[in-house]
Amino acid sequence: MNYSLSLLDEYRSLFPILQSKVHLAACSQGALSIHVKQATEKYVHSLMMEGTNWSEAIQNVEESKRKFAQLIGAEIDEIAVMTSVSDAISAIATSLSYDEGKNRIFTTDMDFPTVGHIWLAQRQNGAEIHFLPTKEDTIYPEHYERYLDGNTLLTSIADVSYYNGFKQDIAQISKIVHEKGSLLLVDAYQSAGHYPLHVKEMNIDILVTGTRKYLLGIPGIAFLYVKKELAETLTPRITGWLGQEAFASLDLHNLCYGAGTRRFETGTPSFISAYAASSALDLFLDIGVERISEHCRKLADFTVSYGVEKGLRPAGSLSSKQRGIMTAFYIDKAQEVEKSLRTKGILVSSRKDVIRMAPHFYNTTSDIEQAINEICKIQ
């Protein structure tokens, strides 16, 4: 597929919603391109006209895995397709052995609730769960130095906080975590697609993310990366026929896990979501995440500076190095403000007491000005 994307207008022209709305809610659901729409229509049309399209659909699943592997610098056999990030983390959590003396799981107070829920559910299997505390909406690398010890089995962290956009230094944390003898799991749902991720360079053991946010797909597909040498040591407790070595043989009586990370796959995935993911990933590979990140970083810096200029109070760090692309502002009655903005054609996302503004490569500073000006009128 050939994209001509030298100008911002050409980026924007791929997203029909931008003709009538200001879309700044990629932290919740990214805008859909015409190519993703065409991909999902292709899937539906194939079913309508052919009745079954298993081989073509499986090919799209494999293509989405290959493209995602390329995006993060992994190998395809280190990628599994899951239904959600919750599904992916649960697959890992239930495959670990929580032996006495090496059973501590560390996560943070800034992680999305599902992460805490999954790890807390492992206490019945012998896991000891600890939450790293925040200080001024920030987690400092020295917190990992202070709290992790030799009994830590795995450290589970978010690359970027879903709540306030706080960005962690994954490379630095990875070094600390591994020196403590712990595995590192990174939730990249709020960073994949607008921030370069190189799992080998960053020495990440496990990475999870989904396609519906910054990767500009739809719900139903998430990706699980597990370092090859680690995957082969893990035994899934949740499995299915597609996670078997020879799934096409339909062998009911023998359990033989697939090679690499594919062992964590279970049943038939959301095929329509795989078509969407494969199409969306084409765009990122053609443009380049580094180029996307540069544009989005400028938008994020502008969002903070213009918001402060207009009297809004950002949540979290003001340091550019400690912020992802998303910016959150403390807003009274945030959910009501979000609904009011939607009636004006401005899409943002509220969480608790903040309004989150998450631009992507299709956004402009004018979009941000319009959203902030409207917020100030409502407040």
Account of the 3D structure:
The protein folds into 2 domains: 8-32 and 289-378, Alpha-Beta Complex (Aspartate Aminotransferase, domain 1), CATH 3.90.1150; 48-284, Aspartate Aminotransferase, domain 2 (3-Layer(aba) Sandwich), CATH 3.40.640. The protein has 12 helices and 13 strands. It has helices at residues 8-12, 34-50, 54-72, 85-93, 113-120, 141-147, 170-179, 228-231, 271-287, 289-309, 334-343, 365-378; strands spanning 22-23, 79-82, 104-108, 128-132, 152-158, 183-187, 206-210, 222-226, 313-314, 327-330, 346-347, 349-351, 354-357. Helix 7 links the parallel strand 5 (152-158) and strand 6 (183-187). The longest helix has 21 residues, at 289-309. 47% of the residues are buried. Residues 1-7 have low confidence and may be disordered. Keywords: Aminotransferase, Pyridoxal phosphate, Transferase. Its cofactor is pyridoxal 5'-phosphate.
The figure for the number of domains is: 2
- Give the class-level CATH name of the largest domain: Alpha Beta
Mean pLDDT: 93
Give the CATH superfamily of the largest domain: Type I PLP-dependent aspartate aminotransferase-like (Major domain)
Distance between the termini: 45 Å
What is the percent of helical residues?
A: 25-40%
Any idea what the CATH architecture of the largest domain is?
3-Layer(aba) Sandwich
Shape: globular
Instruction: List segments where confidence is low: pLDDT < 50 over at least 5 consecutive residues.
Output: 1-7
User: From the helix content, strand content and strand pairing, which structural class follows?
Assistant: alpha/beta
CATH topology title of the largest domain: Aspartate Aminotransferase, domain 2
